[in-house]
Amino acid sequence: MRLRDTIEAARRQGACASTAPDWPTLGLERLDAALGPIPPGTVGLLGAATGCGKSSIMLWAALNTPAAGIISLEDGPLVVGTRALSLASGVDAREMLTGLSAEDQEKVDHAEQRIRDCDYPVVEFAVGADTLAVERAVDKLAASGCRTIWIDYLQKVRPGADAPEDRRTAINVLWAALQRAAIRHSVVVIGISQLGRNAQEGEPSLHSFKESGDLENECRFALLAHRSVDSPTVVLTVAKGLFGGVGVQMCFERVNGALKPVW
Question: What is the pLDDT of residues 33-45, one digit of tens each?
């Protein structure tokens, strides 16, 4: 492909137009504004230490953007569905499993109806999947119309029969597969990743990712979630951006057991 052909391809996808195209968004309004347009074919990261609510942040984002998809490699329908209703209703997910008051039942019913009225998010459950199966799940979600696809989470992808024994190399193989799929379908893929133990000791950085040195170099944007030991607030920070926005933050707090953005 000649360079001029790439320019023609960019124009066909909406670049250099007189009006801005309807680019994919993450569903995190403050961070979407900071990151600027996220071009289709982009792969990014959301990193968080254990207990920071990375799956809840993902679900909140997916519920608040058009045409989102989720590949769940850790949880089944019970956990994902309960957590989604908790976020949408503001009712503690634990109470949904132990009995609801009449008031909370009404809130949950209203939230369920709002979700039922929407075609998205679409969820693919792929517990125990290897790299090939995850790539096929991206293909399936893209075929159903999803434009932003979350993967929860990368360290849960099982090495395939012919996968490299070295874990870092295996993650690189997975990352290459996600990049191929994102470009092939013109979608945005966000892989959720655990952070290393050093992230528990202070504010995380790009070097806090497990398999550090590979993931943060390859991704086009990266978000880091962090919660201090004595604080209920989860701070989500842009650590890397294709067009800037580094340092912009969005905060979440648990209200009645449900994670909600506060600023």
Answer: 999 889 999 999 9
